[in-house]
Write a structure and sequence with these properties.
Two copies of one chain form a homodimer.
Chain A (H helix, E strand, L loop, with lengths): L8 E2 L9 H13 L4 E6 L6 H14 L7 E6 L6 H10 L4 E3 L14 H10 L1 H4 L10 H12 L20 H9 L19 E4 L4 H10 L6 H17 L2 E3 H13 L5 E11 L5 E8 L4 E7 L3 H13 L4 E9 L8 E9 L2 E9 L2 H18 L14 H6 L4
Parallel strand pairs in A: 1-2, 2-3, 3-4
Antiparallel strand pairs in A: 5-6, 7-8, 8-9, 10-11, 11-12
């Protein structure tokens, strides 16, 4: 393998449950054969920190040539210990942590990149290591991954959860005002939480908008910026106050929009108790024609979905449907995410609007367009222990 | 204090960041004064397992009388290490873990009960401890807490997340079929995930329904069962196949329903692109009168909410709004959760229906009813380091 590339990683599956002497022997053989990175996966998330650290220590002590290779760890979170195990291994000399944004991955997921990075940084007194990661991009990156995968981060998730820096108890709030370090071991800015909330309104100009986009950490070309600004102006007509989260949603929307075979031209829907919910939808097809039809459903959203299926001729199985408000207030934007299945493959779509029916229609159309354009699935690099979502997010510490 | 009760717990705030000799001195004084439980809180989630274990070890070795008291730990999850720290302390002799269901709590939350319990059970070879907790109630309890608090559990959360036992990678699926222990260190049943999914339909009788409710782990009296069965029959008219999650939603709905000042009698709504969304709502008041009105909004849900506000005379600030599908398929039930604020207090409501507008109306009415009936807030037991959500969920291991 060394003949083909510089860095060869050897990874014995389920190493954490393997008998240590046998593991040491196998690893030694791999190093002799040219491996330059040795990965010790805890494939089923069975390890606990003290024991996992002992395994790494054992290899350090008993494997000839171990000091010439990079020791890597790959932990799963089945018992909630992926981050702790990875950190314990770092303290024993491991120098690569296989991890994912938001801890996504098979079953309960993998080690969460943002937690490892911030633990190493916050407790540099213990780890004495550098990650070279710009921690101020952690929160925006987490949001982006959450939007792309449709897998939401829970409110009380460490580092990137909505509540991670929210102080509820009165005595804590008092302490925070007196001296923030009393209750805050990291600052919200450190991980890229926006300081200000309320930013722009109907009368904000292009320059102020461009500045805000930059401050939020996005790099847009002129065409993208123009499209986002146009969406911003439309939104400002409907909504008095535009928050950072609104702008992020607009940007992510523009960055998402691929080649679309079908676009929403117009819709109406009727619903109510005791009535039969119905919808009328007009879709614009890439060739310039507009197709209109109507349908019924169990509710207005279902009626819209079924009408879109009728127009496009694509019938899917809906697997998951979510709506959440992105910002506060009654004129908040709603974000809809749709997960649907066709012929054993899963497709996800996302839409944003102040009207959740419209947001849902956009999300469903994204699914329909993905199917119509039949994008190939993501390649799988290492099927032995990586799920598809991990590959994009994988990074070394 | 010992004059008033048997068990006196002493808890020095932020102990994990306190100088060890000083901490030992303070703890010794507390024991001399009669404390029977010594709690060592990591109030800001700063500790890492090896160091936290060393602190517990230090107290064990240097505090006179430490063997006569119960050592307790209270960890926060700011660096994602609450569970690992608690487990490390157990290995050093701590015998009480302060934890919460779903890891709820201040900021990133507290130690997750379900993760500690399953780690101790799954790795009994390391811990040699018993928790006396019925692990088959973990998943239903997690769901109940999530419904009551409105704080959702992320899909890739250990133990109780929707994906915790889902195997995506093909090679893993193959391994599972060959021998489940290859990839599964716990079985879904161990934590109370339902084995079967598809259960009942339109023609299922009361007896089969009662059995299924019992199997799902709910204890309902005859009146409650009758109300849930009635809801079940209504749902079966709309929906071909009723899943366990549907039944759980119905039960939780009945158990939720308190004294309601306002009940939804009927509603209709119209929405569409380029049109002004509007709603007409009829509410039944406890005194037997029906009040009808109509209103407009940014979308159909907003129009319904504003019309309900107009009828009831209660104006709230909407803080959060969520809709998710509880089961799969296009006729899935949608669950709406609403969080609203009035005069500095937050109220939460929840509604379920196949029509998400109707579900949203029910959720919003629950908020309105709570305000109309002005329920007192939950008492706070230990404001120094507990958030309100923790108290209900707190438990000792």
């Amino acid at each position: 393998a060394r003949g083909y590339c510089e860095d060869v990683e050897f990874s014995p599956e389920d190493a954490a449950r393997t008998e240590l002497d046998f593991l040491a022997e196998v690893v030694e053989k791999a190093i002799e054969a040219g491996a330059t990175t040795i990965n010790i996966p805890d494939t089923v998330g069975y390890a606990i920190p003290a024991q996992y650290a002992a395994a790494i220590r054992h290899l350090k002590q008993h494997v000839r040539g171990i000091d010439k290779v990079v020791l890597s760890v790959h932990c799963h979170d089945d018992l909630g210990l992926a981050v702790a195990n990875s950190l314990a291994a770092l303290q024993e000399g491991a120098r690569q942590v296989e991890c994912t944004i938001n801890g996504l991955g098979e079953r309960a997921g993998n080690c969460a990149l943002e937690e490892v990075v911030m633990a190493v940084k916050t407790r540099s007194d213990c780890f004495k290591l550098e990650t070279n990661i710009n921690t101020r991009r952690l929160y925006p990156t987490s949001r982006l991954v959450s939007n792309v995968t449709g897998i939401q981060v829970q409110r009380n998730k460490a580092i990137v959860g909505q509540n991670a820096f929210a102080h509820e108890a009165g005595i804590h709030q008092h302490g925070m005002l007196m001296h923030h370090a009393t209750y805050e071991i990291m600052r919200p800015d450190d991980v890229g939480f926006s300081k200000t909330n309320l930013v722009l309104g109907k009368h904000s100009g292009r320059h102020a908008f461009r500045e805000r986009v930059k401050e939020l950490g996005y790099h847009l070309d002129d065409e993208q910026l123009n499209r986002v600004f146009e969406d911003f102006k439309n939104l400002a007509d409907k909504k008095k106050e535009i928050y950072d989260a609104d702008i992020e949603a607009l940007i992510e929307g523009v960055m998402h929009r691929g080649a679309a075979l079908w676009t929403l031209e117009a819709f109406t829907c009727n619903a109510g108790s005791g009535t039969l919910p119905s919808a009328a939808v007009a879709l614009w097809r890439q060739d310039g024609t507009i197709v209109r039809d109507a349908g019924v459903g169990d509710g207005p959203v279902d009626a819209v979905f079924r009408t879109i299926e009728r127009i496009t001729g694509i019938d899917v199985n809906l697997k998951d449907y979510h709506v959440r408000s992105i910002t506060m207030g009654e004129d908040a934007q709603g974000e809809a995410t749709v997960e649907a299945e066709l012929n054993g493959r899963t497709y996800r779509g996302r839409g944003v609007s102040t009207d959740i029916i419209e947001a849902s229609a956009h999300a469903f159309l994204e699914v329909i367009n993905k199917i119509a354009l039949k994008k190939p699935p993501l390649p799988r690099v290492n099927p032995a222990h990586l799920a598809p979502t991990e590959q994009a997010a994988e990074a070394g510490v």
